[in-house]
Amino acid sequence: MSILLTRETRVLVQGITGRVGRAQTKWMLEYGTNIVAGVTPGRGGEEVEGIPVYDSVAEAALARGAEASVLFVPPAAVKDAAREAIECGIGLIVIVTEHVPVHDVMELKAYAINQGVRLLGPTSPGIITPGQAKMGIMPGNMFHPGRVGVISRSGTLAYEICADLTAAGLGQSTVVGIGADPVVFTGMPELMELFDKDPGTDLVVIIGEVGGTQEEKVAQFIARGMAKPVVAYIAGLSVPEGRRMGHAGAIIQGGMGTAQSKISALRQAGAEVAECPLEVVELVRRRLVPRGTI
Amino acid sequence: MRLYEFEASDLIRREGIPTPDYVVAANPQEARQKAKEIGVPVVIKAQVLSNGRGLAGGIRAAESLDEVEETADLILNSSIRGLPVQRIIVAKKVEVAKEFYLGVTFDGYSGAPVVIFSPAGGVSIEEIARAHPELVLSREVSITTGFLLSDAEQIIREAGLDGEELVTVAGILHTLYHIFRRYDALLIEINPLAQTLQGTYLSLDAKVEIDDSSLYRHPEFQARLADRIANPLERKGYQIGVTYVDLDGEIGIIASGAGLGMATMDIVSRKFRPANFLETGGAISADLLYRVMELVLQKKGLKAVFINLYGGINPIHEGARGIVRYLQEHPTSIPIVAKALGNRQEETWQILREGGVKVVTEVATEKGIEQLARLLEEEK
User: Fold this and answer.
1) Which 12-71 residues of chain A touch chain B by CB within 8 A?
2) Which of A18, A45, B19, B134 has a CA positioned 20 to 30 A from the CA of residue A95?
3) Would you tell me which CATH number, out of the four given (3.40.50.10860, 3.90.1300.10, 3.50.50.60, 3.40.50.720), belongs to the domain A11-120?
């Protein structure tokens, strides 16, 4: 079992003819993703890796019955491309693109909530259900099927911690990257709720970092009655205040959003918090063994 | 991108919010000459991108032209929180009856704009919130509906203003929201908005931060971004398209993602001190990593470099070629240790090894840093 994505999910790739879209389509197909169509305006009728390309989402969705879409389009095109997908009834949209203007994200988020569509990102590495399918840019060889659900703000750090888990024989049910911008479409608590209900997930790993309040909201969600155990790691204990560390959302301001405040909130709510990425493995093992679910 | 006060004031004045007459000067003579045009008394304000200028002596009044020259000289030869003052504003001094705080920002979690008003302006909003939380009114705005004049009037009325005062201040708050939207601001503040003894309303200080990701549609600001990065290494990082943060340690860090970079910094910090944070984002090429190596190795006092890459969106085998090319052209005696995993990892390892880079094939960054520590130990 898994959340959001399975090998059956019919996936569309918007921006499939670009350099990144093309390369990632190949990796996604090799992994087993059921990609049914691609879209690039003006390139209808072409093929990428054997996948038919259409001029618009409407044509692709009608001809191929796409349910989910992953976007590899430039920042300035994200707002309209995502709206196009929403208009065509696509239910899950993953935005990998970095540097999308925050105001565009705010507008799109309000629109998506109104339409009841789930968006992930921006600056999301995507979503992977190991052994089944992936939408996005996660390198498949880091992951293995299993029963740990993972939610991360960072792509690369999710790869590292999942590879650590995989090396220890602890596979993952689904791994979701929420994105690293100041505003993201889907927050961590909404995904915690999905994992809590998923019979294929026994435990949730949260990978956070300095800045924003996602991890504090996770703590509130746990305190309200999350049934499954939660293990977390927060990057950025050594980050100086006022410096933006690559991710637009990773900044400590006025003492808010520090790694320490997030760690305290999570521990208080009952989550186990690792001091370093590798310790996540130990904490997961300790929580899972007594339940006899490895 | 944070704007200087004079840029922020130019912006809000252009959009119809009144300010006192002011000029910008770069030397005391220019300050004197321009002060003559607007007339004394004036207020002289350091133009630095730092909060708390007033407390640091960066805002001073001058009653005569001689005093303007003297005070300008004093401020222009000072530093405010480590930032040298290169320009000043000379602004007509006004007689203040009341001070208000007006701000627009956004809630990162809900993703909605937030309008903030306080009738107790003049000090920072954090300070008002601490001392008089009941005097801070904030309201989330539906970005779809927008912020109507009636919404602005409602907040101002709740703050206890009425009559002409209500209408005028609400109008300014409404305009401020539209500036926030039009210029892709992350934060826009007028503090204080002064009601003068003459009954006019003037913005005496404005703060604007514009979203870097939106600068492609604001070319007037885009061109100025690189110039205001004071640290030369950080400026170079911006110019080559990576995030470089200068720190004061001895281990250089190159990571292909921000989260990974921060975790690497945390792990390095347990035994050593990071010399920098560097994050490439998703646009790795051979040329980019060549320039990244050049940048990181410029730092004085480096003892080693730790490279931490994942091949997801990034072609790490291409990056490896750039690293090796740099090292062949510029041999170095300090250890270069690399961990690179993901798509095409074996090919990447081979390129790095042939180029003299110590490759870590284990997954955990902790193990990589242990290897680096052993190498440094052996050198001793």
Assistant:
1) 20, 23-24, 27
2) A45
3) 3.40.50.720
